[in-house]
Amino acid sequence: MMYSLMVATLSLGLTVGLTYGQDRGSQKDELETRAHDVNNLADRHGGMKEAVHSVSVETGVPQDQLQHMRDKHPDAGAAGLMIACVIADNAKGSPERYLDHHVNGKGWAAIARENNVPLDKINVRMDKLQRDLEGMPSTSRNLPATGRDRGRNSRY
What we know:
30% of the residues are buried. This protein has a domain of 109 residues. The chain is mainly α. The protein is globular, with a radius of gyration of 20 Å. The chain is built from seven helices and no strands.
């Protein structure tokens, strides 16, 4: 009887642990996928200049600071800047610190969880950024996303 109870308890613990681990993994994958999608949207809708402006307006982080972060980590997209700023705002830290953690291999969901930032807060801000980017005109030519104005009268 005691053996059966112990086996049942152990089985339940392993099941809960595996389910929790799978949920954490899916949250990580979901946030990383979402960031990738938003970054692609930024590329299609004019590049980083407008996206950095949108992140600045939404988070209150100065554009110069965001541009400095972008210069330091050129692969960081608009979504990464947004997520780093949201975590920093809620955790009372520096956005650069969280962006550095992510660039060094830590997932956004893990960074948020370690700093007690609900993923819902990040997703609400990502929704806003996505709406802002969708409202921008799409680039008609296949040009690198530099954020430069490349209208008809442009020499470039």
